[in-house]
Amino acid sequence: MSGTLNETEQLVLLALARLGTGAYGVTVRQEIESRAGRPVSIAAVYAALDRLERRDLASSWLSAPTAARGGRAKKHFRLTAAGIDALEAARKAMDRMWEGLDLRASRPR
Amino acid sequence: MTPPRIARWILYAVLHPDDREHALGDLEEEFRHIHLTDPRRASRWYWTQAIHALGPSARRHLSSGMLGGGFVHDFRLAVRALRRRPGLVAISVATLGPGIGAATAVFSVADLVLLRPLPYPESERLVSAWNTYDEWRGHEVLDPFWDRIGLSYPEYTDWREEQASFEEVAIYGTALMSVTEDGEPTRVTVGRASASLLPLLGAEMQAGRAFTTGEEGPDAPRIAVVSYELWRDRYGADPGFVGSTIILDDLGFEVVGILASGFRLRPLGAPAGPDFRHDVWIPIGSIGETRGEDLDRGNHSYEAIGLLRDGRPLDVAESEAALLFAGSEAAPGTRWARLDYRKAEEVGGATDPILLLVAGVGLLLLIACGNVASLMLNEATNRRRELATKAALGAGRRRILRQLVLEGLTLGVLGGLLGAAVARLGSGALMRLAPTDLALPDSTPLDLRVLLFSLTVGLGAGLVFGTAPAFTVRQRELVGGLRGASGGGTAEARRAQRVVVVLQVALSVVLLASGALLGRSLTRLENTRPGFDADGVLTARLSLPTGRYSTDEATSFFRTLVDDLDANANVEATAVSAMPFSGRGGSSSFQIVGREVQDREKQPEAHRRTVLPGYHQAMRIPLVAGRYLGRDDRVFEAPVVVVSQSMADTYWPDGSALGARIFRDRREFEVVGIVADVLHGDLAEPPRPTFYVPLAVAENRHDLTLAMRHATTNTAAAQALRAAVWEIDASLPISEVATASSLLSDSTRAPRFRTLLMSVFAVVALALSTVGLFGVTTRMIAKRSQEYGIRLALGARSLGLLAHVLGREVQAFLVGLALGVLGALVAGGALSGFLFGVAPRDPVALSVATGTLTVVGIAAIMVAALRVTRLSPVDVIRAE
Question: CB A46 to CB B19 under 8 A?
Fold first, then answer.
């Protein structure tokens, strides 16, 4: 797997960056849904987090179970340094693609 | 306030085990949160999450997940393991391929005939409706029709006006007519339809329109809707065709529409081949009463079809129809109606023969799988060292089993692919051999369904023989396998192989016995004498247009034609309204003078044939008593008939038939002769009472079949016939040219087809189980060669060893044979509907099956066992 990120991965990493220590499944999902306006399922979030974790772009730890969660544990996530680098690389790539571009001029009539 | 249980269960099942805990926790937390404001939205939301989890989770499971990690890796290992054993792969795939191919070919037939919906919109709600008449049950002539009597036009209009169960109902009839504009006169199949028929079937138009309400009945206009195919083939797809006039039996019909290509409707009353199509549709009533189209309440000649309202139960519609059909005429309780789904009616008698083939090919496939399973079992024991090494390196039992199963599945898929290819070649041949009443197209495209079927069968088979060896592998033995190379632990595998062989032998007996039963039944059937001599008889149907020929002109036409043909030496010509085995025929009610019955439906009924005098002599139908019809019997004042033996026995059991008088068509006939019985359409059916009316006094004199016994080739005879017909009337179409023998042999096409396929299955089963027996014996000897070598070294005789080996294997064989005989007895019972003149437990068929298998099977064991006599103790012990 190369170093590039797909869109869902970028969204998830950005959510981790925004949420800081409050990042776990529920908040990540809600952050993407509310801010990016993109409906996303919990399974898709975890699939992306799983890939990111295996590439060391995110890390996780478990906290104790609570009653509000039906007695289940919570898995917290955090962005790693490599994750920050990957996000910045992705941003730069996009910026370069956008540089000096005026889409209104190239819209077909 | 808990999430929907089923959705949670789905999530539990599909979520990756690593994520299950916290993902479910997250979902529950959010669910509760939403639940506070909107409980229903919370449930919906949870369900959405569950459904969306299916996609990503499946991908994760495949790449790493739930199957325990490394699925792709294990698949690669399985492929690699198989590549190291090209022989095993080749044999397995070569065994499975034809088996799966045969199964797929049979499936494609079953799929086409039984499973696919009819080609009409809402076809699952299309229903056929019939009159029934209880008194006809068990009747010599009418029994087959007691619950499939058509509707008359007035019955239809009453029904249509008052029924509430159908969105629409329609009736139609089928007739042959001649089109004669210019060019060669052609016979076309004409559908006479109520105006509602084509819209009900959702028929699309290439151009123009279908009939509209009111364009039917006594005032029906002479308009026609033409099939796309006739428009293309006869009228060269003329773009200005709509609005022109076609001539049908000398009547002009204005073409108002052309149907879209491919539209067809199979009539249920008559056998219709795969290419059957109505060429022209005209409204019921448009031919006119004077031309013989009567719209009476008593003319039950139309087939009825209806589009059931959604959700309306069939039995409710049936009770309603029964009331409406009966009208005020019928006595209460004598008439009823029978409704059935159109699909079931069309499939009709084809279901059982197809299920028979499905069962046969299923057994065959099991036997083929048995051989592969046996091979795989043997492989599993050979690979004990490899598997033990894996176990020692930390692979769990589950992991090892999974690899074995994957190998089986891979083999199965390969076999499935070969099977699909075999099916592609085979199904074409199958369809060409198949009896035409199955109405199959000549070939089927190898479509996705059929391909999927092959692969599914392959996977299923792979699962069977992949798991079989897996069950013989135990953790404890895996460890043991590393220590000792061979010995003790393989007993289980050997036992499993023996069980497989026993089952194979049993299944083979079932197939062989079934094939033998069908074969004996077919022989009986084909040796049944039809009652006339079919050799050297050419037949052709001639239908004189009623507009151009009066009744008397028709009579003289046939007389002149037959005289012309007879003038030729070596030719004996005659004419009859329906040749035996031509699929045509008809019956009439009549009165016996002195024993009149008033109730029309209780009057005696028998088959009626219109013949030219000389018919019985030409067809070599022997005279039993009295005399044949003679030329002078045309005398109008004293009409005579000849009756068949069975008619004489049925209606004059005291032997007084000769000289008796019968009454029909406002006329009295004297019985002047009794002729031997002739079978009319089915060799397996007893003869039906028949009376023969001479042409000169018959009602139908326009549509006859000419029969010509000749001593030349069929081609020359057909040419002579055409020349003779066209010399009298050059615009007359000649149709249905055939030999009487081919009509006869066509009637046994269905049983021949079944028997052929079952025999092929049986022979392949025999070959497969022979290979199985040989293989198991060979491998058994190879496995125990060390033991045998030591025995030989200790002074055992090789003949004694041979007897020892034979004893063990023959014992297993005999167990299989015994099981097979039991199975064959059960199978015989299931086959009884297909048997003619043979008992389901026919001892001959059973002995043929067991005898063949015993000879071939014991020979296979013997040949394999002889290896033991060639063992050299020195070599064997050195090899260890």
Answer: yes
Q: How far apart are CA B31 and CA A69, in angstroms?
A: 9
Query: Which amino acid appears at position B213 of this protein?
Result: T
Residues of A in contact with B22 (CB under 8 A): 24-25, 62, 72-75
Task: Determine, for residues A47 and B26 on separate chains, whether the beta-carbon distance falls below 8 Å.
Answer: no
**A55: which DSSP letter?**
T
The DSSP line for B642-707 is EEEHHHHHHH-TTS--TT-EEEETTEEEEEEEEE-----S-TTSPPPPEEEEEGGG-S--SEEEEE
pLDDT at B179: 86
Give the model's pLDDT for residue B244.
Answer: 93
Tokens of B73: 């890796």
Nearest to B22 among A25, A41, A44 (CB): A25
In chain A, how many H helices and how many E strands? 5, 2
Q: Which helix (H) or strand (E) holds B277?
A: none
By C-alpha distance, which of B347, B219, B208 is closest to B281? B208
Give the Cα separation of B840 and B233 in Å (integer). 50
Judging contacts by C-beta atoms under 8 Å, the chain B residues touching residue A44 are 52, 55-56
| A25 in contact with chain B, both atoms CB, cutoff 8 A | yes
Give me the amino acid identity at B467. Answer: T
What is the nearest CA distance from B399 to chain A, expressed in angstroms? 23
C-alpha B742/C-alpha B83 separation (Å) is 54
Contact across the interface for A43 and B55, Cβ inside 8 Å:
yes
Mean pLDDT along residues B654-676: 89
pLDDT at A64 over 90: no
> Which among B11, B22, B60 has CB closest to A74?
B22
Residues B79-132 have pLDDT tens digits of: 888 888 888 888 888 888 888 888 888 888 788 778 888 889 999 999 999 988
Query: What pLDDT was estimated at residue B625?
Result: 92
Say yes or no for a CB contact (<8 Å) between A72 and B24: yes
DSSP bridge partners of B245: B254
pTM above 0.90, yes or no: no
Interface test with B, best of A51, A72, A76 (most B CBs within 10 A): A72
pLDDT in tens, B312-331: 999 889 888 888 876 655 55
- Give chain B positions within 8 Å (CB) of A72: 21-22, 24-25, 28
**Segment (H or E) for B128:** strand B126-133
Please write the tens of the pLDDT for every residue from B560-592: 999 899 888 788 888 888 888 887 777 788 889
Among candidates B110, B180, B95, which has minimal Cα distance to B355? B110
